[in-house]
């Protein structure tokens, strides 16, 4: 009976303790309790983009399992790995050091899903005839470290086995889980088909000198791709880098030659620092949002240099990609044929076995885009290249002209508001060159273009509707400038200028006849002082010029070669010159998607970067850096001017940290203000519920004790 006598007190104590624990969990951080979390875990939702393990390329190998490859097998010094046929299987978390040559086999990580596996390549030459050279079947995260001073080579198969294909394998390195490549050694990846490196989760490269050659995409990432402190060279016949998530470059050197987009993200692209050199591509950078906060960006493209491709729902187009003629959101360089002319019979139209269902959306709502992550691509359109030959258009959203009317029934589209697709430039240097493009844009946004700093130089040649700057004005998009310097040259037919609401003045100047290639553009103030100057590589009939020294009410002289004209700044945005024809630009230019489209050969034997890549420089300032390479493959600047920061550039951001104006989406996103508010408002009801439970518990205990006394 004595046991039952104190039952009510026991219940009360347990309930009170439960209430205290609940309050501590809800307010622990405010009370100084530190939350311990694994930054490398798959479920981690913090805002660190690079963890300590990502950046640590010199971890301790003293207790590691040492594996020496030889022929079609090898020796294993400790536990954690074993041989299965021709595969070295790593089955446990831990550290592994691998060296030697494997003539026909691969390295497979198949550990527990919570495992972290550290693999150091210490001079590995590996060839596989039917599978990925390195594949990650299961782990929480794999760190692939390139040992200092070593050369490592991975050569992929000419055909994948049925087992590999069933698993979706499509890269020389193929990972189902998060993968980080770090260290200071060298890695060469050679793909005979498909991609160089594929990650179904995140891919981070934080060190090493890496070369990737592939007939499809160089790097293919399902989630996010992050680069810092590495020297990466990619040659790909499709996209250099293709990610369904965010792409961020915080430092390092990235050199790309691509047949389609040099860099393609289904969401966003950000560069904070480093050198991005695109030697050749169809489009340079394509994403829903593009931000250049720093670094040195040099793009030599055949179509748009930068394209913010969010579909704003405009019936006239404004879809992904860019190009000429009747493209629209259904993609693929569509061109009318002359009477009696037929396309190349080799260009038979392909119809996908599987098509996406129609999903109706309103602006601001998002639905998945057809073709992403599926085995069967949509049909291809017909494309005309600059040499006059017809080729296939984009495989992503590409449609032949006779399918364009029916495309709404076979394709889902992502509808975003004009505020959700944009290009922002706040620092660094940006140079975009396009000599032979037709209906191409230098900087093209289906939404807004905002420039607050940096040095921008754009040169598009010829009179083929090439527009230096193109904003989605028909969808409400605006182009504003409040800092930095810009000389953007192209065709006058569709030339666009900055908004008069801009904080910094600008001039759109047009010519009745095109200025020849190599002309020098100079801006002088009323006293004859040179404010801005640059040699323009290609011919042009329109230019947009702006710098912080320009003031409304003052008079300026624009000198082009030996001719000059005085312009009075009567407004923040002024149009001058004797050219004709200004277009609406933006989405009305009917851009299409060239995702996966093989537009032309990506690179040729002995191909060198364009000679004019580095000659578009403002006098007295610095333009694109002249790239030199030392014996280790690391890039250096050719002049001190190239290394000096430009006026108006961003403040330095520590490597590995994101600027406040941009946070990566997905699993690396911090809790939004709205979510935080919901979390805080949920605390009140939880406390009330706990108090109610406490009262009910005490009432039950009291009644139970009373019944015991009555029985006694």
What report would you give on this structure?
The chain is mainly beta. Among the domains are: 2-35 and 679-711; 65-183, no CATH class. It contains 7 helices and 46 strands. The strands form 5 sheets. It has an 18-stranded parallel β-barrel. A 13-stranded mixed β-sheet has the order 3-4-6-8-11-14-17-20-23-26-29-34-36, with no helix packed on it. It has a 4-stranded antiparallel β-sheet with strand order 40-39-42-43, with no helix packed on it. A hairpin with a 5-residue loop joins strand 45 (627-629) and strand 46. Helix 2 (7-27) runs antiparallel to helix 7 (673-711). The longest helix has 39 residues, at 673-711. 50% of the residues are buried.
How would you sum up this structure in a few lines?
The protein is 11% helix and 35% strand. It is mainly β and 712 residues long.
Largest sheet: 18 strands, parallel, barrel
Regarding quaternary structure, what we see is: single chain
So what's the overall shape? flat
- The count of strands amounts to 46
Low-confidence stretches: 312-414, 581-610, 617-682
Strand content: 25-35%
Helix content: 10-25%
- Provide a count of the helices: 7
Terminal-residue CA separation = 9 Å
